[in-house]
Queue: 3 jobs
Job 1
Amino acid sequence: MRLSRSSRNRNIRRYTLPQIAGIVVISAYGIGQITTPTYALLTNVAATESSNITTAFVFPSTVDHIANQASEAMKLAVQQREAAREVLAEITDKNTDSETAEGRIGGIQEAAAQTREAAAGAAAFLAELQGYLTRSQLELEQQVNEVNQRLSPYEVDFNQLTAAQNNDIPVFEQLLSQANLTLGEFQEMVRKLSSIRRVDAYVQAAYHQASTAAEQARSYADETSLMHTEAADVIQGLKEAEKKAKLEAEEKAKLEAEEKAKLEAEKKAKLEAEEKAKLEAEEKAKLEAEKKAKLEAEEKAKLEAEKKTKLEAEEKAKLEAEEQAKPDKTAEPEAPAPDANPDSITVKIGEKQGVF
């Protein structure tokens, strides 16, 4: 028996409210499964016979764990970067020499290696989540296409049905009828799309977390590598400065040694000159003394010779005078001349008399 339109509408309304209530119950149950990490995310992979609720291709705890591992890798990169900063601060300290700095740069090199490994690990976790994200987006796209393929021949849009379900039940019933769609079929569409969208949103959130961690870890790895390069440049600069200082010190020492040797040579030459001058002066004085003594000796000898000559001459003259004064035996002696000085003593010199 064919029912009239009004009868069909009454029958639809009779079953609509219980079915809508069922949708709410199922949705609430599905949300509980998604937000609890001990249950799987709902997808259209498989279904249980009792509840007709599909299981997920990945558990929330799995994507959570992967995203957290990426964050832990990023934290390790942060720790290694900070350790490298401390070592770099020691190396760049003005009191650090090149030998000490070379002994410390290994810490930065090790930190750089650790940050690179952490960044690589974070990238690997991100790649793993990328696989899950690609799959969830593919499933979402496929489900949307299925819904559109089911509704497009009847010129009904899924968003129209959803909006009418929430705001206008008569319109909702009309659209279901227009799409030749039962309430159960619509409920299944809602459940599948909601489940897949929630899976996609959850995986996207985990992927975003891992992507941020991987990007930061890579940035920390690059920064730590730059620290190693900076430390190497500092050490090279220290070596060059120390080499320059050593050469300057050697040059200064050489100049000081040369100046000292010069002063000592000058002092020695001065002393030698003074000693030579002293010796020469002494020699000159000696020669002059000898010359003077010789002259004095010669003068004395001359004077003595002259004196001797004079004495001899006087003696000779005396003798001659005496000889002349002898009386001539053949001649008469002359009478003595009267003494002009009557008080004087007259000395008579006799022959062979030398006594006064």
Note: Confidence is low (pLDDT under 50) at residues 1-54.
Job 2
Amino acid sequence: MANQNDSFIDEVTEDLRRDRLFMLFRRFGWIALLAILGIVAGAAWREYARSQNETRAEAWGDAVLAAQQASDPVAALAAVDPQGGQGRKALAEMLAAGAEAEAGLDQKAAERLKAAAAAVKDDPVLHDLALLKAVMAAGPSMDAAERDRILADLSKPGAPFELLALEQKAVALIGAGRTEDAVTLITQIQQKDGLSEPLRRRLSEMKITLGAEPERPEGPGPQPMPAPAAN
């Protein structure tokens, strides 16, 4: 009899539990439904936005390639629609400045690059790249004080193009006839971490041109061959 009572109690308890769950679902189920719909809608929107971004990026890239092949690439590149992206506009301006530099319009190229840098001050990589290109485009024609100020900022430790800016400092020292200072700076650059092979090669060639010893590879030099044993 006890077993029958226990079984009856269990059945009643289970029924009550189901009733409570049903009531809770009727009262709060719409919240769970909304949450599920929100997750699905969010995933669909992210996928749509990603697809749209890819489409816009491809269209912009195609427009840039077409502008580079135009009869007047400078004007065509400057007119490329950045589609709301300041970074894309800066890149197009850099390419336009490159076309100006190839046409011998170094000063115009430098001014265009400085304007592009000012437009992307919040992007340290694009900002510094545009300014470094401006220094390289202007060359010796840039005001020395302005060049030194720009290169001082670009060559701060941890800056995106620190080593390339230091290289341009060495180039400026050579142009000013300060050979010993240039050699000292080049040696300091060669001791820094992260040098690419092309940069390392350029620095060595600069030292050779200045009459200094090129950078020697680290580690022991080649060992002499042992003499053959006497018979």
Note: Confidence is low (pLDDT under 50) at residues 219-228.
Job 3
Amino acid sequence: MTFRTSIVAADPQRDALVLQRWLADPHAAYWDMGDLDVDAVRVYLAGVAADPHQQAWLGLVDGVPTFFAETYDPAQVLLRGIHDPLPGDLGMHVLVAPPVGESRHGLTDAVFAAVMTWCFDELGAQRVVVEPDARNDRIRRKNLRAGFTELRCICIDQGGHAKTAVLSVCTRDDYARSELAAVAAPSLTRTGIPA
């Protein structure tokens, strides 16, 4: 199955409602934002948009909002003082919308591949850095399939509560050689991406 993906800058006014619904779903529990109402999500997105060291993105599959991604400079946001960054490091988070209707085999692989390709090709990353919750086995398995190497467990302060995370990194070459790139790349069609 082919998925046409595009990624645009998230807009706090346009996207707060849909993102709030995704965050409130149990599958997004590791984002720890399920209790936010629409106004709080709008404020959160506006804060990300105002910060020169991070960006929020809305991803569409076949023209339908389907995923949310964040990118950030790990030397300035979240991992400051925890991670020893290299030039070209780019932090990343991704959230796929909760499933609705009939399952679409390969969708999450295609979304993850689109985000990784975006990070490397559009944003110029030399290495993508992630810090999934250590208990989130599902995303950790996806990261490994995408070529990430788990470095070590770290403790991240997230607004007054600590998260034990697994610091992981992936170079462009790591991703190109990964199982996920081999499986997802042929089914991924990238459409024109609006500025």
Note: Confidence is low (pLDDT under 50) at residues 186-195.
